[in-house]
Amino acid sequence: MDSYYDDGGCCIVHPDSTELILTGGKGPITQTNWSFVVSYSRDNGTKWTRCNPTPASAGFCYALAVAPSAANIIYAGGQVAGAAAVYRSTDFGATWAKTSTSPTDTVFSLEVDPSDPARVLAATPDGAFLTTNSGATWTNLHGGNLRAALLYPGSSDTLLAGGVAGVSISTDGGDNWNQMNAGLDGREVKALAFAEHGGTYLIAGTQGGSCYAWQFDAGVAERPVTGDGRPRTAAGLRAWPNPFVSYCRVPGYEHEEFAVFDHSGRQVSVARGDRIGAGLATGVYFLRVAQAQAQAPVRIVKTR
């Protein structure tokens, strides 16, 4: 493994092959100086090959990320010689080349847009940085001291960031941010990840070992019931198309009135079922329709 000389860095299993494992960390230049290294195993961890992109400079690899739409492309981030560094591999991690530029501070996490291998989000102590050209240039979207940054599944303009001030969210590609710290006792976030369990959850790991979960439909989803109080399924309620660009229709509910909520459960609009989404910024929203005492929620994602 890369980091058996000292602290661990990162480890990922390739999404297309469980036998391909990559680790990042530091390898020895001398016994007191370590370099940025990445290692890979193609046989489920039995044998390892070490790649050392910076054999003459001290460094550390903190982050690895595979491009979902181009599985041969992998990014590695961290710091080299006291400065931020990002490397890119186009052969499943066998060889690496440094990107033209890097963010302005150590890279602690990376995420690649599922549909665009050139669009990468990085979390650093100087904020969240985005490249849309494979690292030729980077734009700072968030000025906070961060350790993690994510793209919301299915909505690449909805960004999540975690760091010393907790968790924040942007639904407009990083132009504006709002805090999501309700219930988060330990504010110094070290890691973020999404999980599906009857809905979308954001999991936050914090300094000291505490773990918190945020359910995105909290405050919106209600248990559907019929007029006599029996449970009612919402299988017949669906947004189409989803994601939608300008607006969507909800078949069978065109003449019904919907309440539209944002990620935090705040109502942001009211619309009829034949036109939902007009005038909304890109992002994740939830609909709720009421018919007598029967209610049924559904999630929609608006993209550009």
Mean of all residue-level pLDDT scores? 79
Tell me the CATH architecture of the largest domain: 7 Propeller
Strand content: over 45%
Using only CA atoms, what is the Rg? 22 Å
Structural class: mainly beta
| Helix segment tally | 0
The top level CATH class name of the largest domain: Mainly Beta
- What is the straight-line distance between the termini? 42 Å
Tell me the domain tally: 2
The helicity comes to: under 10%
Overall form: elongated
Run of helices and strands: EEEEEEEEEEEEEEEEEEEEEEE
Largest sheet: 4 strands, antiparallel
**Total beta-strand segments:** 23
Q: Kindly report the name of the CATH homologous superfamily of the largest domain.
A: YVTN repeat-like/Quinoprotein amine dehydrogenase
CATH topology of the largest domain: Methylamine Dehydrogenase, Chain H
Low-confidence sequence ranges: 218-246, 291-297
Largest beta sheet: what is the strand line-up? 1-2-3-4
How would you portray this structure in words?
This protein has two domains: 10-215, 7 Propeller (Methylamine Dehydrogenase, Chain H); 217-304, Sandwich (Immunoglobulin-like), CATH 2.60.40. Helix content is 0%, strand content 48%. It has no helices and 23 strands. It is elongated. The chain starts with 9 loop residues before the first strand and ends with a strand.
Quick recap of the structure?
The protein has 304 residues and is mostly beta strands.
Which helices and strands, and how do they pair?
Blueprint: E1 10-13, E2 21-30, E3 33-41, E4 49-51, E5 59-66, E6 74-80, E7 83-89, E8 97-98, E9 109-113, E10 116-124, E11 127-131, E12 139-142, E13 146-152, E14 155-163, E15 166-170, E16 178-179, E17 189-196, E18 200-206, E19 211-215, E20 257-261, E21 267-272, E22 283-291, E23 294-302
